[in-house]
Specification:
- This protein has 13 helices and 30 strands.
- By secondary structure, it is of the alpha+beta class.
- It folds into five domains: about 5-180, P-loop containing nucleotide triphosphate hydrolases (Rossmann fold, 3-Layer(aba) Sandwich), CATH 3.40.50; about 195-280, Elongation Factor Tu (Ef-tu), domain 3 (Beta Barrel), CATH 2.40.30; about 295-365, Alpha-Beta Plaits (2-Layer Sandwich); about 375-485, Alpha-Beta Plaits (2-Layer Sandwich); about 485-600, Elongation factor 4, C-terminal domain (Alpha-Beta Plaits), CATH 3.30.70.2570.
Length: about 600
Amino acid sequence: MELDKVRNFCIIAHVDHGKSTLADRLLEYTGTISEREKRDQLLDTLDIERERGITIKMQAVRMFYKAKDGNTYKLHLIDTPGHVDFSYEVSRALAACEGALLLIDASQGIEAQTVANFWKAVEQDLTIIPVINKIDLPSADIDRVKKQIEEVLGLDPEEAILASAKEGIGIEEILEAIVKRIPPPKGNPNKPLKAIIFDSYYDPYRGAVAFVRLFDGELKPGDEIMLMSTGKTYEVTEVGAQTPKMTKFEKLSAGDVGYIAASIKDVRDIRIGDTITHEKKPIKEPVPGFQPAKPMVYAGIYPAEDTTYEELRDALEKYAINDAAIVYEPESSPALGMGFRVGFLGLLHMEIVQERLEREYGVKLITTAPNVIYRVKKRFTGEVVEVRNPMDFPDNAGLIEYVEEPYVLVTIITPKDYIGSIIQLCQEKRGIQKNMTYLDTNTVYLEYEMPLAEIIVDFHDKIKSISRGFASYDYEFIGYRPSDLIKLTVLINKKPVDALSFIVHADRAQKFARKVAEKLKETIPRQLFEVHIQVAKGGKVIASERIKPLRANVTAKCYGGDITRKKKLLENQKEGKKRMKQFGKVQLPQEAFLSVLKVE
C-alpha cells in the first residue's frame, strides 16, 4: 500500500479515561475483529491488566478503514498505559507515530497525566487530536472540558471530537479525523533498511521478538539484518503485525509498524531504541534512539522457599526483554543470601514486576523495602558515591560531608474542596509549594517540589483517599539537593538484618524507628525462644520491642507426685530455650518486609 494511505497513531490519556475501551470500538468499527472475538479490554493481554483495569504493556495493532473519500487506509494503532509509573512506555510509543488521540474524560476533565502526556507528544512534534470521551455520563460537563482544552493545553476546543467509547458514539468521526489530520509517514521503501525497535517480548519457540517501526527500506524473511548497537547479525525468520493476533506477512515496508523474529536466543541482544539495518547495505548513522529508562526506585529481590538463585536470574533475564524499564544487578545479603538489586520506575511498577515474575515464571520472591538513589560525599577523600542500597550508606556520620537526595516537581490537579487536605499532605512530605492556579471555578492546579523518597511509597494512595479519587498527580525529576539524612538498621536478637535498613530524615528518625519495631512485632511469628527487635541509629538503639516465646506444657505428663519433679522439667525447658536463642534462627516472612512499607 502507498505511503500516503498509511497512518500511525497512538492513544494517550490519564489512567481510566477510556483508552482500552476506545481501542476496542476502533477494532470493531473497522471490522478488524469479528463478533465472536469481541471482549472488553481486548488489547490488555495480561491477566493482571484485566484484573486491575489498567494498561501496563502498550500494544501495536494493524487495522484497515474505508474512509468517506472512497480510499482504504492502513492504520497502525498503539494503545499506551496511563499511570505515571509507565510513562516510559508512552515515550517509546510516541516515537513510532505521527499523531496521537488525546483522550479526556468529560466528567473528570484534564488531569495531571493528561498534561504530562500532551507535552510528551508536543516534544515529538506529533499531530494531536483531542477527544472528549464519556459524554453519555450524567456528570459530563463538555463546556468545562472545552474551556480547559483551550486554557490549559492551548488547543482549539472546536476541533475536539465528542465521543463515548462505551456507547460507540463518535467512532466514525475519530477515524475520519485520523485519516484527514494525521500526516502519512515519510520514508522510501527503496532506500537501505532503517528501523527502530520500540518494544519486545520473549517467545519460547521464536526467541526474542522485536516490535519495530520502519522508516526506510523493506524487511522480509531470509534477510540478513544487523543490530547497530552490538553489530550482531541474524537471519529474519518471520515478519508480521498484530491484527490483533500475531499475523505473518510477506514483508514490512517503510512506514509500517510490525514485528520481526530472527531466532535471537540471547534476550540481552535486543535493546529498546536500537536501530536495525541490512548487513550488506547498512545505513551510516543509527536513528536517534529513545532516552534510556531512568529507574527512580530500587529494591532487593531474593529467591524464597523452593526458588533458586539461577531460576530467579533466568526469570529476570526473560522478563527484562518484555519490560525495558527495569535494570538489575546481582547483590548478596547475609540475611537473605544471593539476589538482585532491581531498579523500577515507581512503586506500582515494582508491584507489577513482582507479581508478573511470580505468576508468569513461577518463582517465589522476597522483596525488600524500596528506596531511591542517594549521593554521599565522603569527608576525607572528597569522593561522591551513589547509594542504591541502604546497606552501603556509611554508619559513621563523621565520615560524611553531606548527603543529597533526588527531588521531583509534583503537579497536582484537584477539585477545590480537597485543597486544604492536599496542601497539608504535601507539607508533611517536606514539599515546597511553587505554584497554585485555578483552572476553572472548581479545579485547582498545584506545583510542589518534594523529595522523591516521600512519594514513592504511599503518596498515591493518600492523595486518592483524601480526594475520594478525584485528584491526580504527575512528577518529573528536577535534580539532587542536600538533606539531613541518617541510616537506621533493624536488629533481630542483636543481629543486623541488612535487608531491613532505611535512610530517613533526621527529624523523623525516632518516630519512624518506633513504628518499624511495632510493625515487625505484629508480623514476625512467635518462636520457641524470645525474640528482641531493635532499631539502631549509628550503633545506638532508639526503639525496641519484644516477642514473647511460645511455651510447650512440659508438665502435662505429671499426674501428682512431688512438686520438685515439675520444677526440674521447667528448669530443663528454660535451659533449652537459652540454647535455642543462642543458636536459633528467626525466619522472616515476606509480610515482615511488606509491613514496613506501610509505616508512615
